[in-house]
Design brief:
400 residues; mainly beta; 1 helix; Porin; disordered N terminus; 17-stranded antiparallel beta sheet; single chain
Length: 400
């Protein structure tokens, strides 16, 4: 994915303001604080998967994919004359992936443009915190692009903390304005009898999300949070290079409704068993108007090994019903209005188990490098009952 990086210019502006603030004073005697770097986060991961239900080839065929993702984040902050905190979060992510199934869009090519691609996604977020009145306001912008897809996002949020700081409520609204470049399977590009888009057309997709979170400290050992999200999408929601094979053996491009409404509801609970063990749990129920219902349950015990290190053992179970538009290869009928053979929309269950190691040392630093405040390594193994499996390895470094 190719992307314009505006972050460098924004960083230059921030650091120029930092330099100016060192010498700028006001008549009241208050000296403006400079914008300082609070922390820098670097995260890199390697992901690989395999399976036999590629949507590109009608629900059968290789799903082999690899992805190397790197994320670089800079957090900056300053206090004003009223002790309010102004924070900036500047983030740049880059993914480089290869997808064997994407080569099947046009099998006659040795290697298509979609086989290997790069996605770049910068974002900038601002947060204002009024410490005295215990509320925060935040807003941000994001951008993402790859060979057939671009996205511009915006978000705005509000957080309020109770007087005793045991309760916090937050609301966040997000909107994404996307553009798809329509890529059709090679054999139907000149005969789009069933398609609502022609090859190389550009089509919009708009997504809106409203998230609500209520966090509560029950006692010194137990904390809970209740989460609700309301999502709405409209535009081209089908992936047009996905094939669908019908009961008469004919083939068409995937076709799905132009709107989708989603409601996920969740609860998170963390319990401190003792000075060495913390138990983190999560449950989520999901529903959408495509008739997908799902349940997610996760549990993650964290065990403190030393004052500076801990080990975590995350496990997640997930199950969902099939979308009403899904069917396997050669099962759809020509009279169907909408159709897909994408197994992400099928009925399935999955398990994920992992292992994490966290090391922190604010005095000596990691590897005796003072600036490296913490290091975290995580591994996850994921498997579905339809044969898809994946591995992911992640390394995270925090600099202060």
């Amino acid at each position: 994915m190719k992307k314009r990086i505006i972050t460098a210019a924004f960083l230059a502006f921030l650091f120029s303001q930092q330099s100016k603030a060192q010498t700028d004073t006001i008549n009241s005697g208050y000296k403006k604080q400079k914008l300082k770097i609070e922390e820098i986060n670097f995260v890199s991961s390697y992901y690989t998967q395999n399976g036999d239900n590629s949507a590109v080839t009608g629900g059968v065929g290789t799903e082999k994919l690899t992805d190397i993702a790197t994320n670089f984040e800079v957090l900056l902050s300053k206090k004003d004359s009223k002790n309010n905190i102004h924070s900036f979060d500047v983030n740049v992510g880059i993914d480089s992936y290869t997808s064997a199934s994407s080569d099947k869009i046009d099998p006659s090519t040795v290697s298509s443009a979609s086989y290997q691609d790069i996605r770049v996604y910068p974002s900038v977020n601002y947060n204002f915190e009024n410490v005295e009145k215990r509320y925060a306001l935040n807003a941000g912008l994001s951008f993402s692009a790859e060979f057939d897809y671009t996205s511009i996002g915006a978000n705005i949020g509000y957080t309020k903390t109770s007087k005793d700081k045991n309760r916090e409520f937050s609301v966040k609204g997000m909107a994404f304005f996307d553009t798809w470049k329509v890529i059709l399977p090679i054999e139907i590009r000149n005969n789009p009898t069933d398609n609502d888009a022609n090859h190389l057309d550009t089509k919009p997709r708009t997504s809106y999300n409203l998230g609500l979170t209520l966090s509560q400290v029950i006692n010194k050992n137990f904390q809970m949070a209740f989460l609700a999200d309301f999502g709405y999408q409209e535009g081209l929601l089908a992936t047009k290079f996905n094939r669908v094979y019908f009961d008469d053996l004919s083939v068409r491009s995937e076709k799905l409704p132009s709107t989708r409404f989603k409601i996920p509801l969740g609860v998170r609970a963390n319990y401190y068993l003792n000075d060495r063990i913390i138990l983190r749990t999560f449950y989520r129920y999901y529903y959408d108007n495509w008739n997908i219902n799902s349940h997610t349950v996760s549990i993650e015990p964290s065990i403190k090994l030393t004052p500076f290190s801990s080990l975590s053992l995350p496990y997640r179970y997930y199950m969902q019903s099939a979308a009403k538009y899904f069917d396997a290869i050669n099962q759809h009928q020509l009279t169907d209005e909408y159709y897909t053979s994408d197994y992400d929309l099928s009925k399935f269950s999955s398990n994920m188990i992992g292992l994490g190691y966290h090391l922190t040392d604010s005095d000596k630093g990691i590897f005796h490098i003072k600036r490296i405040h913490s290091l975290e390594m995580r591994y996850g193994y994921y498997t579905r009952n339809n044969g898809l499996s994946s591995h992911i390895i992640t390394l995270a470094l925090q600099f202060k």
